[in-house]
Amino acid sequence: MALAVDVKRRRRTEALWGYAFLTPQLIGLIAFMVGPLVFAIVLSFSSWDGLGSRTFVGLQNFIGVWQNEQLRQSWLNTAWFTALQVPGLLITGFFFAFFIQKAGRLTPFYRIFFFAPQVTSTVAVGAIWLWLLNPEISPISALLKSLGVPNPPDWLQDPGTAIPAIVLVSIWQGLGYMIVMFVAGLQNISPTLMEAADIDGASEWQKLRKITVPLLSPTILFLSITSIIGSFQVFDYIYFFFDTTAPANAHTIVYDIVNIAFREFKFGFAAAIAVYLFLVLLALTGLQFLAQKRWVHYTE
Amino acid sequence: MTSSSSEIAARDLEAARRKNTSHGLGGGRFKPSWIPLHLLLVAGSLVMFVPFLWMLFSAMKPLDEIFAQPPKLLPKVWQPQNFVTAWQGADFARAYLNSVYIAGLVTVFTLITCSMAAYAFARIRFPGRKVIFGVFLATLMVPFQLTVIPLYVIMGQLRWIDTHLALIVPPSLFNAFGVFLLRQYVRGIPLELEEAASIDGAGRVRIFTTIILPLLRTPLVALGIFVFLGQWNSFFSPLIFLNSDRNFTIPLVVNQFKGAYSSDWTSLMAATTMAALPMLLIFIIAQRQIVQGIALSGSKT
Fold first, then answer.
1. In Å, how far is B106's CA from the nearest CA of chain A?
2. What is the 3-state secondary structure (H, E, C) of A59-109?
């Protein structure tokens, strides 16, 4: 009897310690995540400028998002950005990782160059590329002219090149992370597998297709999920390049959310766009998890 | 994500050793197949590095030289005074200070709160543990843009708009990724160590500070680098929460500089150089630590 009370009391002290250690993050979870999340969903069904009274408007915001022409364009721009950027990042990242890990003692040396943009802020990267892409002073355009291209585009202003140019900048900056993650994955592949393949007379291409890519597939899945999420939220470059006056063809969804929320102060409408963004990200991630069974290979 | 040990340092070394015996530089015999490999990597490195050189040398050009056709990398006349113009054009000293202390405080607090929560989740039994941990994991999917509007309203209520508290407190008190990362490592610490200390009469706090924290050194350094870099380079939150110049961080100052000196390209490049250089120098010195930190942070999720 006394023993049972003792055990009970000890369990309660244990639980109290658990909550004590958890307290700071638990406060943060409630105050800065769960609370705001619930509030955001309430807001998405409301009309509110942040000051006056909040009115319930039902699905009006959610329908409004579909009727807004600029937003329709922005969704397409964002999807186009993702469609170019994510495969671009994964392919160039894998390509250079594959070769950089063959460089032996020089691997860390090359890594400095490829990783340097990763430690640089998006704003500084934006400033550098604002120069490199400005038609009046662009060395890239000058190079193209000297190669016989008569009229290089105004990269950031021409509707057709704005998104691809920003994709280029983002790949330049994000490549280092991809390389580091791929190199870590490649170094996990046991050399004995490759030696066995060599003995069987496999070509480099066969080894790549049948050994490297399957064994790397969990890394590829992880990088593809996180890149798609990041890519759908692209904002910094656009805002830095264009401030509040981005041409219609360069708007992305987060750029519109920020403008609508913090310039027009339509909190409810902006929240509804953000809810859509959340649903799109959930759906894309869910789809990738469903599709992984067909191509991702787990060794453990 | 699959690696269990994540000791990339050891792996790097081991891989290098392996390569040296077969087809690396230095140790082994020269092989003609190295030439295309290194040509490719040098070309790639140049593409990555030339924009930085362009930034640095453009920052030293007189304004009229930038319109020269075709553009040249090196200035004809060196004009380092652009840096003085840039330094005077915005309050860089204060911005450095703001950036350093915001990023520093967030890093320290994040490491403390995350390791505490990680310890609770990994080692202490309390009702609701699984559910709460599940909630933490689920929030990883929530885009910041969804919570930022309510967060702005909350910060307004607390009168924290245009103060650094709005940038320091929320990320310090909530970092689901950090909690998850550290929890994985706490789970890897042998339970016997704690039991032994417990028999010796050590309480939870003693065990946490004298056994758990020292053994979490590697992931704490990794998470610290990850958090500090993210905060130092952060643009979105400061842009939304700060209004007055004296509170600006480095990225905001560069953004402001671009608006105010839009045609003064050389000063903008000087400002950009000043913004980018400290972190680039730190990176070159602590290359291995930083790369490992980032890789380790990624590989555990």
1. 13
2. CHHHHHHHHCHHHHHHHHHHHHHHHHHHHHHHHHHHHHHHHHCCCHHHHHH
- B65 vs A: CB within 8 A: no
CB contact under 8 A, A32 and B151: yes
Residues of B in contact with A39 (CB under 8 A): 150, 153
- A34 in B contact zone (CB under 8 Å): yes
Written as one letter, the residue type at A66 is W
Question: Taking 70 as the threshold, does the pLDDT of residue B16 lie above it?
Answer: no
Q: Which residue ranges make up each domain of chain A?
A: 2-44, 68-295
Cα distance between residue B74 and residue B51, in whole Å: 13
Lowest mean pLDDT among A236-245, B20-29, B216-225, B277-286: B20-29
CA distances from B26 to A15, A102, B16, B71, B283 (A): 58, 13, 11, 39, 25
* Conformational region of residue A243, where left means phi above 0, alpha means psi within -120 to 50, and beta covers everything else: left
Q: Which CATH superfamily is domain A68-295 in?
A: MetI-like (1.10.3720.10)
* CA pair distance B251, A185, nearest whole angstrom: 33
Cα distance between residue A285 and residue A267, in whole Å: 27
Query: A261, A244 in Cβ contact below 8 A?
Result: no
Which among B58, B149, B266 is the top mutation candidate for probing chain A, defined by the most A β-carbons within 10 Å of its own β-carbon?
Answer: B149
**Contact between B68 and A138 (Cβ < 8 Å):** no
- Map out the domains of chain B as residue ranges: 1-31, 32-79, 91-299
Q: What is the pLDDT of residue B221?
A: 93
- Tell me the shortest Cα–Cα distance from B235 to chain A, in angstroms: 7
pLDDT for residue A223 is more than 70: yes
* Chain A 232-291, residues with CB within 8 Å of chain B CB atoms: 232-233, 235-236, 239-240, 243, 254, 257-258, 261-262, 267, 270-271, 274-275, 277-278, 281-282, 285
What DSSP element (H or E) covers A227? helix A213-232
Across the interface, whether the CB atoms of A37 and B125 are under 8 A apart is answered no
Q: Which of A19-23, A138-142, B126-130, B179-183 shows the lowest mean pLDDT across its residues?
A: A138-142
According to DSSP, residue A298 is labeled: -
How far is the C-alpha of B119 from the C-alpha of B155, rounded, in Å?
30
Predicted complex ipTM: 0.91
Chain B residues 143-182 within an 8 A CB cutoff of chain A: 143-154, 156, 170, 172-176, 179
> Who contacts B134 (Cβ-Cβ below 8 Å, separation ≥6)?
none
Instruction: Compute CA distances A137 → A131, A158, A196, B65, B67, whole Å.
Output: 7, 16, 54, 10, 6
The residue of chain B with its CA nearest to that of A266 is B149
Query: What is each CA distance from A57 to A43, A248, B18, B152, in whole angstroms?
Result: 10, 28, 66, 22
Question: Per the CATH hierarchy, to which homologous superfamily does domain B91-299 belong?
Answer: MetI-like (1.10.3720.10)
pLDDT digits (tens, 9 = 90+) for A183-219: 989 988 888 998 999 999 999 899 999 999 999 999 9
Interface test with A, best of B8, B47, B48, B55 (most A CBs within 10 A): B48
Q: How far is B264 from chain A (nearest CA, A)?
A: 11
Q: What would the pLDDT profile of A42-83 be if each residue is shown by its tens digit?
A: 999 999 998 888 999 999 999 999 999 999 999 999 999 999
First CA to last CA distance, chain A: 47
